[in-house]
Amino acid sequence: MKSIFLKSLFIISIFFIHNYKSQSVNDYISFYNGVVPKLNAIASNKTQFYGHNFSNFYNELSQKGIDVVNLSYDSKTDTGIKYYMLALYFCDSSMDKPALDNKFQILWFG
């Protein structure tokens, strides 16, 4: 009796873990499919942001419903510190794991 109970508990646990994983993967897929077309629309007009304040680009992202979750910067070249690269991340770290586990692209650009 104890063995059947433990096996049942194990099977139910596996079911819940698998169900949680597939839901988070589906969430990432729908998030990705919602954001990428908006980013592509902005990318087609990217030259209008060259030489302008970052706030213009950020406002355009906001108007399209794209949230920047995190910012980071780094030097553009390994030896140079004069020019910097700004990296924008569009999903929070909770979505990184399901994306990486399934070999999906993380939404960021720099």
What does this structure look like?
The chain is an alpha+beta fold. The chain has helices spanning 2-43, 54-63, 96-101; strands at 70-75, 84-89, 108-109. The chain has a three-stranded antiparallel β-sheet, with no helix packed on it. A hairpin with an 8-residue loop joins strand 1 and strand 2. The longest helix has 42 residues, at 2-43. The protein is elongated, with a radius of gyration of 21 Å. The chain starts with a helix and ends with a strand. The model has no long low-confidence stretch (mean pLDDT 77).
Considering the chains and any ligands shown, give keywords for the structure.
110 residues; three-stranded antiparallel beta sheet; 13% strand; elongated
Q: Categorize the overall geometry.
A: elongated
- Cα Rg: 21 Å
In DSSP terms, counting alpha (H) and pi (I) runs of 4 or more, how many helices? Answer: 3
Largest sheet: 3 strands, antiparallel
Structural class based on helices, strands and sheet pairing: alpha+beta
Can you tell me the residue ranges where pLDDT is under 50 for at least 5 consecutive residues?
Answer: none
Beta-strand proportion: 5-15%
Tally the beta strands.
3
End-to-end C-alpha gap? 59 Å
Mean of pLDDT? 77
Strand order of the largest sheet: 1-2-3
Could you write a compact summary of the structure shown?
By secondary structure, the protein is α+β, with helices and mostly antiparallel strands.
Secondary-structure blueprint:
Layout: H1 2-43, H2 54-63, E1 70-75, E2 84-89, H3 96-101, E3 108-109
Antiparallel strand pairs: 1-2, 2-3
